[in-house]
DNA sequence: TCTGGGGTCCTAGGACCC
DNA sequence: TCTGGGGTCCTAGGACCC
């Protein structure tokens, strides 16, 4: 067990079986744009500055971003628009529809600036990034100064306000960011690494446990019932108790709060393991024809995402649901997974599979509110192909086939091979022989709907 | 009348295999 | 009057995040 003192905090790096504590002496910064969507809108319309502003979700369904003035009125994230319409009128709240293209572009600008501060950046979401500050102490002897510099530069270059939290683990950096946002005296930057222990304890004991990253509504309520009401109480709870009661994830959160970094910086964005495309409808939908149109359009964009990350998928899932808020209506929701004969990223094939599934789960006489598709079994084309062959018992016997595939891989790139090999007689025949009947279900009779007009 | 969309990980239980 | 043990894979459900 080693001891690593940093500033006046004393941290113990605990050896944790199965928890995977990374090295000591990590320092993370979390940079987060305040009220991101609202701030983006303000950059392009300065008249919104210092006014109450809300950005609404798709179909203008509910609030997804709120200015501080709106938060002060008690309007919560996700509040349906119709529920605060009157309040909005009363307080002259400016209500905007969302513009995700704009927000994505602004996000890129911020992330580019952050890369100028650290070579190790993890883009965690559209409006926040973790930076590794390891080895930065000679450049920035006081991390707070770096935080202020980030705030100044991002504001100056993009017009967006950010807050910076600094801590010895990601969870503490998140907590620091929360403090930087909510305690005006911190002026937007909070460094827990150099904070004296007594002050840190004081902050943690006035922070509700639900504010801790990884503690949601459900577990928050359970912790509360068990007497763990603050971040400090969670930090000081016995790890074995946390594990027994809440599982490994919460045990890790406890360790992170004690300053033992268990979550590493993930700089490389891993390819998605599932890709979803779904929407709620503006109006209720009754017919298979309209549902088919939507599903076709969702699948088109999902397949685009799949190809953009150079993957293929093994199955598509399609789901539909009625409106659960309309209790007077008959309720129905269902989903079906349609396996593909071969891993693919071909839009037409995926659309056909989805429509085949949709037809199976569609029930007439209902009012549908939502539909969507999910691509599953996503992986690198070459790897999936190989694992399928092995799984079906032809692995060892088809060395030559493997060699041929590898050669094709080298020549055309991985995606090409998955599709091309589906067409080769030998591969196809072998697969057909080994497949279970469900894989050979024919959905070729489902008409192709052209999504790209 | 009107309630977002897109992800991740963990766990438990069943099927199946040797 | 008694029913192995260990492993993998798959799925569903529950929790969390933004």
From TrEMBL:
BP GO terms, sorted: DNA repair; error-prone translesion synthesis; SOS response
Annotated GO CC locations: cytosol
Superkingdom per UniProt: Bacteria
Keywords: DNA damage, DNA repair, SOS mutagenesis, SOS response
Gene3D superfamilies linked: 3.30.70.270, 3.40.1170.60, 5' to 3' exonuclease, C-terminal subdomain (1.10.150.20)
NCBIfam families named among the record's database cross-references: PRK03609.1 (NF002955)
Domain UmuC: 28-216
Molecular function as annotated in GO: damaged DNA binding; DNA-directed DNA polymerase activity
Classification via CDD domains: PolY_Pol_V_umuC
Protein name as it appears in the record: DNA polymerase V, subunit C
Organism per entry: Nitrosomonas mobilis
Family under the similarity heading: Belongs to the DNA polymerase type-Y family.
A Pfam family this chain is assigned to: IMS
């Amino acid at each position: 067990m080693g001891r690593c003192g940093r500033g006046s905090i004393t941290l113990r790096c605990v050896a944790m079986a199965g928890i995977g504590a990374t090295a000591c002496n990590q320092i993370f910064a979390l940079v987060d744009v305040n009220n991101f969507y609202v701030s983006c809108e303000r950059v392009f319309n300065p008249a919104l500055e210092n006014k109450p502003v809300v950005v609404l979700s798709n179909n203008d369904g509910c609030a997804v971003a709120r200015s501080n003035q709106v938060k002060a009125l008690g309007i919560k994230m996700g509040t349906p628009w119709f529920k605060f319409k009157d309040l909005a009128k009363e307080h002259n709240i400016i209500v905007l529809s969302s513009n995700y293209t704009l927000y994505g572009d602004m996000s890129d600008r911020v992330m580019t600036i952050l890369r100028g501060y650290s070579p190790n950046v993890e883009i965690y979401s559209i409006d926040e990034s973790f930076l590794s500050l390891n080895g930065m102490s000679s450049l920035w002897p006081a991390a707070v100064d770096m935080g202020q510099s980030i705030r100044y530069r991002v504001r100056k270059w993009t017009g967006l306000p950010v807050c910076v939290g600094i801590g010895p683990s990601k969870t503490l950096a998140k907590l620091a960011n929360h403090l930087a946002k909510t305690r005006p005296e911190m002026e937007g930057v909070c460094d827990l690494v150099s904070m004296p222990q007594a002050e840190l304890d004081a902050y943690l004991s006035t922070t509700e446990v639900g504010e801790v990253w990884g503690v949601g509504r459900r577990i928050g309520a359970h912790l509360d019932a068990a007497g763990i009401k603050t971040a400090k109480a969670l930090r000081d709870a016995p790890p074995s108790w946390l594990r027994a009661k809440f599982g490994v994830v919460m045990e890790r959160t406890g360790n992170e709060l004690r300053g033992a970094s268990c979550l590493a910086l993930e700089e490389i964005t891993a390819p998605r393991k599932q890709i979803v495309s779904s929407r709620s409808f503006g109006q209720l939908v009754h017919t298979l024809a309209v549902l088919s149109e939507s599903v076709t359009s969702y699948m088109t964009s999902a397949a685009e995402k799949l190809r953009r990350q150079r993957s293929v998928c093994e199955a598509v899932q399609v789901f539909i649901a009625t409106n659960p808020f309309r209790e007077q209506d008959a309720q129905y929701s269902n989903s079906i997974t349609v396996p593909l004969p071969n891993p693919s990223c071909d839009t037409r094939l995926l659309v056909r599979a989805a429509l085949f599934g949709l037809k199976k789960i569609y029930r007439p006489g209902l009012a549908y509110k939502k539909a969507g598709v999910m691509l599953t079994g996503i992986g690198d084309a070459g790897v999936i192909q190989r694992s399928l062959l092995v799984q079906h018992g032809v692995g060892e016997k088809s060395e030559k086939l493997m060699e041929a595939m590898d050669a094709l891989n080298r020549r055309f790139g991985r995606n090409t091979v998955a599709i091309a090999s589906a067409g080769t007689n030998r591969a196809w025949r072998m697969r057909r022989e080994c497949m279970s009947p469900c894989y050979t279900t024919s959905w070729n009779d489902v008409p192709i709907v052209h999504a790209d007009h």
